[in-house]
Design a protein that fits this description.
The complex is a heterotrimer. Chain A is mostly helical. Chain A is built from 14 helices and no strands. Chain B is mainly α. Chain B has one domain (3-289). In chain B, 73% of the residues lie in helices and 3% in strands. Chain B is built from twelve helices and four strands, in the order H-H-H-H-H-E-E-E-H-H-H-H-E-H-H-H. In chain B, a hairpin with a 2-residue loop joins strand 2 (143-145) and strand 3. The relative contact order of chain B is 0.21. Chain C is α/β, with parallel strands linked by helices. Chain C is built from 14 helices and 15 strands. Chain C has helices spanning 6-24, 49-68, 88-100, 113-126, 139-142, 158-176, 189-205, 225-234, 245-256, 274-279, 301-314, 320-339, 344-351, 400-413; strands spanning 36-42, 77-83, 106-109, 129-132, 151-153, 180-184, 210-215, 238-241, 265-272, 287-291, 355-357, 365-369, 374-376, 381-384, 396-397. Chain C is globular, with a radius of gyration of 21 Å. Chain C starts with 5 loop residues before the first helix and ends with a helix. In chain C, 62% of the residues are buried. The chains are: A mainly alpha, B mainly alpha, C alpha/beta. Chains in contact: A-B, A-C, B-C. At the B-C interface, helix 2, helix 5, strand 1, helix 6 and strand 4 of B face helix 2, helix 8 and helix 9 of C.
Chain lengths: 324, 300, 417
């Protein structure tokens, strides 16, 4: 494998993952697995896109769900009201998120630290207010009801479970691969440089504000892609998608999974989902249970799951083994 | 949008008096809650995301205390002290460990407590909403001041808020302990090197911030209904106030609270369906043009 | 009223444990004794947790009654209750899981608003019978784009409350010469629709009425000060509100100290609800309300007995959501008995147009209307409120013939019919 370039390695891993995912439903006739994976696709995209900002860029956004929600709403609205095909709706949703992120990002990325965080939160709540108030367009607090039409495109019929599952997996794996390639590219390393030492990067001629804005826009687009998947899952769109609780969930996913490893957020999303799905079955006091688990992670490990593995790997490498 | 209604109101003295007093009343309650949050941030540099839950706990403690003693004063006091003790323990065993960590880690620890407290409250007091009711002492007709109506209870609340604001200002600027606290806020290592116990100072300030939140919950209890999960909205409001006023500044919290109160009262005339949106818009504007808030130090 | 309901939680879990233990005994589980699993997504946490509690309590009580009477030829119902936390995407997930992995053949959907729509789409997608027992949004059954042949609703509708309330209030307005009205309702779909419909019918029955202003606080808003002062400034003679629960309680508390209710009539559609009636310490004079649930309305032994049984079991008084869920289960069990099966499609055919004996019916009966799958003939009425039992001494019940006529016209206006 060593003669392959990094991007080729990543692409192969992605292909392998996709094949595994596609094979998974064959092992069990139950729809639970399928539903779980589809939701994981949506949340995994959201969490990983957020980590582009948090882990790679050092920009802690409290309002990232605003793009998740925008993607869902634009996609659902295009299908419901404009009667376009699914690919067109998808592209429009991603474009809308890019535009929104460009406008909001241009204002936000100039701020640092906690002020950046608060401003993203404020914009998100502002957007949420607009969604709730603009009833004629968004359905207000009830969301978009009546289901979304799924016209057949390229022979794919999204009202059928298998097609829907494959489509979501392809979107998710594709999106994650794209994010991976971006983060391993010179742009990604510049972003890391800005995270670690902004002044130095500026001295080296890096246009700080611009790079951060690009990262913000890209993160917004991929969050919107996650929103599209979620919209397909619930067959609609709800204001909850753009509420700070959704942003909060994304933050927990990346903290639990690890912010220094690329698949950390995905792992965190999976763990949190498994936890959520099982605990709600046994007790109405799932808040208590989740709170205790979070405390264990934050006070006990003080880092995410994959970060623990990464440190373990590092220390065993430092103990004289072959470094990667 | 009903801008004509707004302009009409601005042209009428009685309307201005009523709306301004409304704004002050709303602001007084907001200040009571936000004061603790901004104090904790100002001295410790951490954002207490569990602040709303402290408020909720205070409200419930006041409810139970009132049911046991029939005394509003005791109830509010119990709320403050109870939450103050809880905050002390919270700081000692949990927050202290994440002072040096990422803000996300601090956020997570607080969020864990929000989740736990919401369920604890549900277990102890039940899921149904509870109401304390107005204590008989305040069940009297409202006062008529300058064409506007002001309930006696709110006069009391505003005085309480004013008193607390004064006490805080006085303590922080005119007393020795206040100087120590400000020193610990500005330069903890130096303060510690001078032989002062910064750990103790942090614990004191954090628990006092919690006390303020609990006290606010108890004081407002007669005019609020309590349910598990009521802390979230209080938290958001406190954020807006402290961000606008300046994180870390008590006078900023007072100004921010009054400003938000006025925006709400006049905004509900001009933009009746978008009052909440107005508040977030204000938050956006402040962060864009003066991120450190009205009373905060300007950012370089 | 008890504040501690953990014993009920334990009872529920015990019930579930016993039920699953019963399932495990191999030599007993022949096909005809296979339990009928009904999935029940509801809200058991957060601000609206009492909705889920009341709903699950009532449903459990009704199911126990059915099982104790022998079930369906020995087949007992197992109620599988799940918490959606009030998030619609979680409601969708929970509903799907109940059907696909928990083997639930029927969904009893005790979700509110957007959650109900989410579950509705899941039921449509999976082809499962769903009985909504909480959502009062008319479009769930009235809108032909939303309606499905396997989707039913056993809950009151805002439009019905509005027609009856409008008629009642118009009478009071005529008698007391109340011309200037203002409204204060929560700014979300239920609040807006209910208020607009009430005003529409108030004006229909009494055209001399004028609405001089409306106030729209946010749902769960804690501080109503600016709403109260705006109402004071308008100087209305009567005020209408669709506020409910804790919001209504704190609004009344806050408005009382302003003297808002002095020399004014207050029409609160959600006031006659035991949670509010027991929480509000200073019930103002001149208060009118629709009935959410009252032991005394309908004033029949059946209703009183049901209320006493509920209270004996759960220590709390039943709320609106409770009677709706009890009736929902009654509809389902009656359909099961009629078709002698638990097959959703067969049951749906039986449910359309079905009439059942019920303590909550206007004349002892509830009917599942055939053309839009929603319940009618339930006891709906308005009346003046007092601060003590029976709270509403002289309710004016709605006339269902009139309600149906006006509702049809309303549907035509909305292009639903």
């Amino acid at each position: 494998m060593n003669h392959l370039r990094d991007w080729q390695k990543d692409s192969l891993w992605a292909l392998l993952a996709l094949l595994l995912l596609l094979a998974l439903p064959l092992t069990s006739p139950s729809r639970v697995v399928v539903d779980f994976i589809i939701r994981l696709c949506a949340m995994g995209l959201l969490a990983t896109s957020l980590n582009m900002l948090v882990g790679y860029g050092g920009m802690v956004s409290f309002g990232h769900a605003m793009f998740f929600g925008s993607g869902a709403y634009v996609f659902a609205l295009m299908l419901q009201k404009a009667s376009v095909s699914v690919p067109v709706a998808l592209l429009t949703a991603m474009l809308a998120c890019a535009l929104l992120a460009a406008v909001i990002g241009a204002i936000c990325v100039r701020l640092k630290g906690i002020y950046f965080s608060f401003l993203t939160l404020a914009f998100q709540m502002l957007l949420h207010s607009i969604i709730i108030t603009w009833t004629s367009m968004t359905g207000g607090d009830q969301g978009l009801t009546g289901g979304i039409p799924r016209p057949v495109f390229w022979g794919i019929d999204l009202s059928q479970t298998q097609h829907m599952y494959v489509f979501c997996c392809v979107l998710a794996v594709g999106g994650l691969l794209a994010m991976r390639l971006l983060m391993q590219s010179p742009f990604g390393y510049t972003l890391r440089m800005l995270r670690d030492n902004e002044d130095r990067a500026a001295y080296l001629g890096v246009h700080v504000w611009r790079v951060r804005l690009y990262a913000f826009v890209l993160a917004g687009v991929f969050a919107g892609l996650g929103g599209v998947v979620m919209s397909l899952f619930v067959s609609g769109a709800f204001p909850d998608f753009s509420y700070w609780t959704m942003s909060g969930e994304a933050v927990f996913m990346i903290m639990m999974g690890g912010i220094h490893v690329f698949i950390g957020p995905l792992v965190g999303a999976g763990l949190l989902q498994i936890f959520n799905d099982t605990v709600t079955r046994f007790t109405p006091y799932h808040g208590l249970a989740l709170g205790v688990v979070i405390l264990l992670f934050t006070l006990g490990f003080q880092r995410g799951v994959t970060d623990v593995f990464r440190l373990f790997r590092k220390s065993s490498a430092a103990a004289g083994k072959e470094s990667l | 949008m009903e801008l004509t209604a707004l302009l009409e109101c601005l042209g009428s003295v009685s309307c201005i008096v009523t709306q301004s007093s409304t704004g002050l009343i709303i602001g007084a309650l907001l200040f009571l809650v936000a004061a603790g949050l901004t104090l904790i941030f100002g001295v410790l540099g951490v954002i207490n995301f569990a602040h709303g839950s402290f408020y909720m706990l205070g409200a419930y403690i006041a409810l139970t205390a009132y049911r046991l003693t029939d005394s509003y004063a005791l109830a509010a006091l119990a709320a403050g002290v109870g939450v103050g003790v809880f905050a002390w323990l919270f700081e000692r065993f949990f927050m202290r460990r994440v002072y040096q960590s990422d803000v996300l880690l601090q956020l997570l620890v607080c969020y864990a407590f929000i989740l736990i407290l919401d369920d604890v409250v549900k277990i102890v007091w039940g899921a149904e909403f509870q109401s304390m009711g107005m204590p008989p002492a305040f069940q009297m007709p409202p006062l008529f001041i300058g064409g506007g109506v002001v309930p006696v209870f709110y006069v009391y609340l505003m005085s309480a808020a004013g008193l607390i604001a004064f006490l805080l200002w006085f303590t922080l600027t005119r007393t020795r302990i206040g100087k120590i606290i400000r020193a610990a806020a500005q330069n903890p290592s130096m303060t510690s090197a001078l032989g002062l116990n910064t750990r103790l100072i942090y614990a004191l300030v954090f628990s006092f911030g919690g006390l303020l939140a609990g006290l606010a919950g108890g004081l407002a209890a007669p005019v609020r209904s309590m349910s598990p999960g009521m802390g979230f909205s209080i938290l958001i409001e406190s954020f807006i106030v402290t961000v606008i006023g300046g994180m870390g500044s008590v006078s900023g919290a007072l100004l921010g609270a009054i400003l938000i109160g006025l925006i709400r009262s006049f905004g509900s005339i001009g933009f009746p369906l978008f009052v909440e949106g107005l508040m977030f818009l204000s938050m956006v504007l402040i962060l864009v043009f003066r991120p450190s808030g009205i009373m905060g130090k300007a950012q370089s | 009223m008890s504040k501690n309901t953990s014993s009920d939680r334990r009872t529920l879990l015990k019930l579930g444990a016993i039920a699953s233990a019963g399932l495990a005994a191999p030599f007993v589980s022949r096909a005809q004794n296979k339990p009928i699993r009904i999935g029940m997504p509801t809200i058991l946490s957060g601000r609206v947790a009492m909705l889920g509690q009341a709903s699950s309590n009532a449903a459990t009580l009704e199911v126990e009654k059915f099982n104790a009477a022998g079930g369906l030829n020995g087949r007992k119902i197992e109620l599988v209750i799940r918490d959606s936390k009030g998030q619609p995407q979680e409601a969708a997930r929970v509903a799907r899981e109940l059907v696909t992995s928990e083997n639930c053949e029927i969904l009893l959907d005790a979700e509110a608003s957007s959650g109900a729509f989410a579950v509705h789409e899941v039921a449509r997608d999976l082809g499962v019978l769903v009985m909504h027992s909480v959502s009062e949004t008319s479009s769930l059954s009235a809108d032909p784009k939303v309606r499905t042949p396997l989707g039913f609703r056993c809950a009151r509708q805002g439009i019905h409350d509005a027609i009856v309330g409008g008629a009642y209030a118009a009478q009071v307005a005529k008698a007391k010469n109340l011309k200037r009205w203002m409204t204060v309702s929560p700014d979300y779909a239920y609040g807006r629709d209910t208020t607009n419909e009430f005003i529409e019918y108030l004006k229909f029955f009494n055209p001399s009425v004028e609405v001089i202003g409306d106030v729209w606080p946010k749902l769960f808003q804690a501080d109503y000060t600016e709403s109260v002062t705006r109402l004071l400034q308008g100087k209305p003679q009567a005020i209408y509100s669709a506020l409910w629960g804790g919001d209504l309680t704190s609004f009344i508390d806050q408005a009382s100290i302003y003297g808002l209710f002095k020399d004014r009539e207050f029409f609160a559609v959600n006031m006659a609800d035991y949670a509010v009636l027991t929480a509000v310490k200073n019930v103002p004079n001149g208060l009118h309300s629709g009935n959410r649930y009252l032991k005394s309305f309908p004033n029949t032994p059946a209703n009183t007995n049901w209320c006493n049984a509920y209270q004996a079991r759960f220590k709390d008084l039943p709320l609106n959501w409770a009677w709706q869920n009890a009736a929902a289960v009654q509809f389902l069990t009656t359909a099961m008995k009629k078709t002698n099966s638990s097959d959703g499609k067969k049951m749906a055919d039986a449910l359309r147009g079905m009439s059942i004996d019920s303590p909550f019916g206007n004349n002892g009966k509830l009917t599942m209307r055939a053309d839009d799958n929603t319940v009618v003939d339930y006891a709906v009425g308005w009346g003046a409120l007092e601060p003590k039992e029976p709270f509403m001494a002289k309710p004016s019940p709605g006339n269902w013939k009139q309600i149906a006529e006006l509702e049809l016209q309303w549907k035509k206006r909305k292009s639903f019919a």
